[in-house]
TrEMBL record:
Region: Disordered, residue numbers: 132-164
Gene designation per UniProt: LOC110785481
InterPro entries named among the record's database cross-references: MAM33 (IPR003428), MAM33_sf (IPR036561)
Name used for this protein in its record: Uncharacterized protein At2g39795, mitochondrial
Species of origin: Spinacia oleracea
Feature: compositional bias, Acidic residues: 137-154
Pfam name, any one: MAM33
GO CC, one annotated term: mitochondrial matrix
Length: 265
């Protein structure tokens, strides 16, 4: 699957994320106005004196009118946001796992990470995949202008692309494991750091080695090949990018509905 095609579909699915920002801005303005009214009303001496002079019936009626209105407005905005996300293109479609995908996917509802597992020649391989960092517009490019001025240009180039954080753990039966902190970009996987762990005697291996970029270039390439052979490669991570965008949308809708239920209760 070409990443350009994946990213086009991913960008469409990321539209609810953009609407999320606009919705949050509207919600913030509405909430701020409501909070301001309530704060002034509750703290103002004039309000206290006015309330004391008002009849109990009128005061009760005013409170009864104002109190439900804030919840009603919040419920309307929540439902509006739910409708926007659910009506977005491809919302009901499920990202299909490609044939020959080397990992078993464990995706728990309500969690922000997905776990991949597999066995390879006696090794146990676990990959923890986090939510993607999306960069889809000109504003994101402007935010990274300073990064583009890096000496080698590498960091600036990758920082302007969408990415998926990965934690790859390759374990042996004797308790030793290699842990790779990675970032998956379009058609490229960057290893940020690696460390050697011992689940039975952590203190014996306190030294975790030098920074990955300080390693010999040939050694860096060898580690990349090491992960590729075990299934951590661009064709895998490109699929994960699309999969995690889909998960993010679903978790967001679920969260909105849970909040709405709380406000309604």
């Amino acid at each position: 699957m070409a990443f350009s095609a994946i990213f086009q579909r991913s960008a469409r699915k990321a539209a609810p994320l953009a609407s999320r920002l606009i919705g949050l801005q509207r919600n913030f303005q509405s909430s701020a106005a409501i909070a301001s009214v309530i704060k002034r009303a509750s703290l103002s001496p004039q309000f206290v004196r006015s309330a004391a002079c008002s009849s109990t019936r009128n005061f009760s009626s005013e409170v009864a009118t104002k109190s439900p209105s804030s919840s009603t407005k919040l419920l309307e905005v929540l439902q509006s946001e739910i409708d926007v996300v659910e009506e977005s293109e491809d919302n009901d479609q499920t990202v299909e796992v490609p044939k020959g995908f080397p990992f078993e996917i464990k995706d728990n509802v309500g969690e922000q990470t997905v776990t991949l597992t597999r066995e390879y020649e006696g090794e146990n391989i676990v990959v923890e995949v986090s939510m993607p960092s999306l960069i889809t517009g000109e504003e994101d490019e402007e935010d990274n202008e300073d990064d583009d001025a890096d000496e080698d240009g590498k960091e600036g180039e990758t920082s302007s692309q969408s990415s998926v954080p990965l934690l790859v753990v390759v374990s042996k039966k004797d308790g030793l494991s290699l842990e790779f902190d990675c970032t998956a970009y379009p058609d490229e996987i960057s290893i940020n750091s690696l460390s050697l762990k011992n689940s039975e005697a952590e203190d014996e291996l306190a030294y975790e080695g030098p920074d990955f970029l300080d390693l010999d270039e040939n050694l860096q390439k060898a580690f990349h090949k090491y992960l590729e052979i075990r299934g951590v490669k661009p064709s895998t991570t490109n699929f994960l990018h699309e999969y995690m965008i889909e998960k993010d949308n679903k978790e967001y809708v679920r969260w909105l509905k849970d909040v709405k239920k709380f406000v309604e209760a």
